[in-house]
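Subject: Thiazole synthase structure
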Amino acid sequence: MPQDSNDTLSIAGRDYRSRLLVGTGKYKDMEETRQAIEASGAEIVTIAVRRTNIGQNADEPNILDVLPPERYTILPNTAGCYDVKTAVRTCRLARELLDGHNLVKLEVLGDEKTLFPDVIATLKAAEELIADGFDVMVYTNDDPIVARELEQMGCVAVMPLAAPIGSGLGIRNRLNILTIVENAGVPILVDAGVGTASDAAVAMELGCDGVLMNTAIAAAKRPVLMASAMKKAIEAGREAFLAGRMPAKRYASASSPLDGLFF
């Protein structure tokens, strides 16, 4: 981790050492899920309530048996929701199943092909959830104006996409992400589009507070190893951001000073 022990990610009043958040979908089984998440070092784990059993189906395996809430902060998400009513109902179900847990990841999708967010519905759902006492981490597009609106509304973290969900294309619009980061007063976490470790490092070098990913790890040939790689990439990118990179130059600049040379 970064050498500064005070360099923590703070979300909804709680501090975390890891800046990597991970999902739980697409693994071959729960054991692989457990191993990959452990290798990632993540402390916040997001779970799609509509697709994963966290207690609503008593006769099915419960993912919380391998990812206990005593060890991880469980972040219920509204993946698969395409309207305000379904998203809000899903968050309320999660709160009931998790004994009053208020931290949720909101996503309201616009269509099944792109999985881009429906921004208008997202704003409406966020407003309703915040009024109901939820701490909302919100998935959105990479529009700085929308990000600002979601922050002003009271979301505890804003999570712009880097590229379409599950695409692995990496950060397609660095300038928009940078603009969001520069103007934010809440944590900004890249969510969606990361494909490999270098993508995660770039996000952190831009100044993002963290990265959430699932497919980049779960769809790798060796998910547990990729989880370890992502952990290191997040740490390296964060340290590079804190260190402050050298200015980019068009031409060469001697690594050793020329002054005082003996000829």
